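[SOLVED] Predicted holo structure with zinc ion

Edit: marking solved, answer below. Original request kept for reference. I posted the sequence and ligand SMILES and asked for the 3D complex as structure tokens.
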Amino acid sequence: MKACLLHSPAPVETNPLVFTDAPDPQPGPGEVLVRVKKCGVCRTDLHVVEGELPPRKSPVIPGHQIVGVVEKSGPGATRLSPGARVGIPWLHRTDQTCEFCRQGMENLCDHPSFTGYSVDGGFAEYVLAPEDFVYPIPESFPDEQAAPLLCAGIIGFRSLRLSGIGRDGRLGFYGFGAAAHVAIQVARHWGAEVYACTRGAKHQQLAMQLGAVWAGEAAAEPPAKLDAAIIFAPAGELVPAALRALKKGGVLVLGGIHMSPIPSLDYKLLYQERVIRSVANNTRQDGEGFLRVAAEIPVRTRVMLFPLRDANRALNDLKGDRINGAAVLDCA
Ligand SMILES: [Zn+2]
Ligand SMILES: [Zn+2]
């Protein structure tokens, strides 16, 4: 098969992914082999490729927002038939035995593996996944529309849940990329008011088109105090600005897997029971819950399509803030 391989992490400006032939994967027990149609490009892929996340496998095929069809099933995998359309997310597998898994928090599993990081992902024509960790994709979504739902969408949804936002709540988004452009649709569906703090006129415009009540620069102060805020940008320097925008008792959710250092804070920014919390990975329940809501709304994603062989270009455009919405690779 054709695939984009990362041999060792390097700045994306050096085009570190190599488009080449790779061995065809064979499904093991409980696994399905999936023919990849589309694979979304996530900021986490950028962190993997550039080495902000320490390498777990080398070479590795990145990509964890995969939409494809089941080609064949390994021994004991009987749930999905060949031809079934499925989505494969970041959470590849959990041990299901650690204390976190046993308490319904498999996103915090002690021995997890992750698609496109500790196992090969979807910047390829084929990929393997345990059949228990893939999702059926609601029919209403075309492949390229569905791809960004599988990480940007699911993690955005978990971030929204952890923010505790509800009807008539005021919610701030810091950074307005792939995750925020989906999360705003869910937040509005729930009746929340969204304020978008993001650099660049294009991202601010997209936020307003999607129903934000206000959009301004990344560290700008929104015109109203917020019940909750989510920082999607990997920029620790936004934490004080976001705390300053919160009401007493407000919740600040950090939605990324990696963030630059957070500057020291004056305690009064946090006092009055403001809360800062991070979001890690997803549970299968998040994935299923989100896809159900996404189909109900229905969520619409903005995508920029790139051929599989141009994965380096997609990553460069993501890093350079030139993607409005989500980047998606065409792998078919
Ligand atoms: Zn576990
Ligand atoms: Zn991701």
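OP edit: The mean pLDDT is 96. Thanks to everyone who chimed in.
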